[in-house]
Amino acid sequence: MRLKINRVILDVFEGAEVQHALLMYLVRRRMSTKLLDQLAVYDVWGHEIDQQAPVSEHREIRIKFKDTK
């Protein structure tokens, strides 16, 4: 199943959750997987998505670092 995170196209397994796709994204971008807890996930319309939510085919996700104030 294909989806896009911040303009990076990823192939994930059927039944994957958002957190699985995020881990693949972080590895591909050579970033630490410890950053997973610091990411806020949004759909293309700006609605926040839970990391345990299932992903679907051709979904677009945007991620940002959470404000830690």
What is the strand and helix layout of this fold?
Blueprint: E1 2-5, E2 8-11, H1 18-28, E3 39-43, E4 48-49, E5 59-65
Parallel strand pairs: 1-5
Antiparallel strand pairs: 1-2, 3-4, 3-5
Q: What general outline do the C-alpha atoms trace?
A: globular
> For the record, what is the CATH homologous superfamily label?
Phosphatidylinositol 3-kinase Catalytic Subunit, Chain A, domain 1
Question: Which residues form runs of ≥5 with pLDDT under 50?
Answer: none
* Amino- and carboxy-terminal Cα gap: 36 Å
Give a quick account of the main beta sheet: strands, pairing sense, barrel closure.
5 strands, mixed
What CATH architecture label applies?
Roll
What do the pLDDT scores average to? Answer: 92
Strand content of the residues, in percent? 25-35%
Derived from helix and strand composition plus strand pairing, the structural class reads alpha+beta
Helix content: 10-25%
**N-to-C SSE string, H for helix and E for strand:** EEHEEE
Q: Reading side by side through the largest sheet, how are the strands ordered?
A: 2-1-5-3-4
Q: In angstroms, what is the radius of gyration? A: 11 Å
CATH class: Alpha Beta
The number of distinct structural domains comes to: 1
Q: Total helix count?
A: 1
Please name the CATH topology.
Ubiquitin-like (UB roll)
Number of strands: 5
